[in-house]
Amino acid sequence: MDPCPFVRITIGNLALKIPVASKPARSVVHPSSSPCFCKIKLKNFALQTAVVPYIPPENTQFPDGQAHTVAATFHLSKSDLERLVAKSIFAGKLCLKISIYTGRRGTTCGVNSGRLLGKVSVPLDLAGTESRASVFHNGWISVGKEANKGSSAQFHLNVKAEPDPRFVFQFDGEPECSPQVFQIQGNIRQPVFTCKFSFRNTGDRNQRSRSLQSEPSSSRSWLSSFGSERERPGKERKGWSLTVHDLSGSPVAAASMVTPFVASPGSDRVSRSNPGSWLILRPGDGTWKPWGRLEAWRERGSSDGLGYRFELIPDTNGGMSAAGIVLAESTLSSHKGGNFLIDMGVNSSGRSTPGNSTSPVCSPRSSGDYGYGLWPYCMYRGFVMSASVEGEGKCSKPSVQVSVPHVNCTEDAAAFVALAAAIDLSMDACRLFSQRLRKELCQDRDLLG
Q: Per the record, which residues fall in region Disordered (predicted)?
């Protein structure tokens, strides 16, 4: 089945240079000693903010040899493209709008602390970009009040659009209800996986799931080393497991809760200092192998959100290693939900992710030529995956998008589906212990909250 067309718009290689005045005013913020930033807006998409590096005004060109740095991205589906192209026909040319500020980001007493230097508008012609790359601007633009007098500030940027086809999967129900998973392509829905939610036998912490009792015993001994073996007193949620099967019934991926989600002492929440964790597992060499680890907790303060960290686990040919590469670390709103995102350029807020566009990160491929055997020389680049997560108490049927270059086999796609299920289930696992869970998530009555 064909993937869905997507387009990725990237804004990068930002830089700013400002002529030095002979007698600089004391009230002016000088970028050589203070940071600069910009706000980037594309119609109907969330505003993104990025830091703008300052370079000396005597530099006439963008620094040679500098790797392409991504400051912001916008991901457009086919429906987004159709809507934006239609609006540009009837309402004038579509533009990317950028406001450049000197001074620090943020607000003080409700007033923006940055000083607006100028605004830039870059026209976008998105027709045909789902099949070919287009560069809309690459170079310097004059900004500020002196833009037409030859003595203005200069702003450097690169704006381009590239095809970014993705496989799209949709859970047909909440993960704890053991749903089917469909692949979506336009109006076509085709079943590709089934999920089985279960509880690990709490009497045997080395046995991962009743649904995989046929697994080789050698695969069980290492599992507990990733989680906690302590019997913690007090409230805890533990033993959850979800196995992904292909249509023939063979298990192709799994998510297993290896560290219980436990209320911190004197509270009814899972703390960042003692998070619960999941292992995402893939079959290989007749056994299960850990692919990634997901940690989750409940943030304190005004955000009161779901904090998470996902890291990729290298294969060490049977040896154990806790070292991994962090691919995603952020917070989701407990009330509104959001998108879990792995993007090796920037995240949805415009901030750099722990792995940048040039960091070597191994793909979860099963091929010996591209997968575990070459760790860490194979790479993830650009957008990797996203998964929708609903807020607490809302019906959740996760939608999962995976970039085509990162799916070489069924197990690749299944690993991302299992990860999406784990982050969705973490929203329930991190609910305040004063709240009740639905019955499908409770093996014992005392786990209801």
A: 203-240
User: Residue 200: which pLDDT band, with cuts at 50, 70 and 90?
Assistant: confident
Average pLDDT (170-198) is: 96
Give residue 366's pLDDT: 36
Contact between 310 and 274 under an 8 Å Cβ cutoff? The reply is no
Q: Averaged over 392-410, what is the pLDDT?
A: 94
For residues 68 and 11, is the Cβ–Cβ distance under 8 A? no
Contact 185, 47 (CB under 8 A): no
| pLDDT top residue among 155 and 211 | 155
Those residues with Cβ within 8 angstroms of residue 319's Cβ, 6 or more apart along the chain or in another chain: none
Contacts with 370 (C-beta within 8 Å, 6 or more apart), sequence order: 363, 378, 408
What is the average pLDDT score of the chain?
80
Average pLDDT of the residues in 155-183? 96
In which element (H, E) is residue 411 found?
A: helix 410-429
d(CA 228, CA 212): 21
Q: Which residues of 243-276 are buried (b: 16+ CB within 10 A; e: fewer)?
A: bbbbeeeebbbbbbbbbbbbbeeeeebbbeebbb
Decide whether 7-20+31-163 matches 166-201+236-346+379-442 in CATH topology: no
Two tokens, residue 243: 């196995």
Here the tokens at position 426 are 């973490």
**Fold type of domain 7-20+31-163:** Immunoglobulin-like (2.60.40)
Domain range summary for the chain, segments of one domain joined by +: 7-20+31-163, 166-201+236-346+379-442
Measure Cα distances from 143 to 13, 45, 48, 60 in Å. Answer: 17, 24, 19, 16
* Amino acid, single-letter form, for residue 399: S
Give the right CATH number for 166-201+236-346+379-442 from 3.20.90, 1.10.3470, 3.50.50, 1.20.1530.
3.20.90
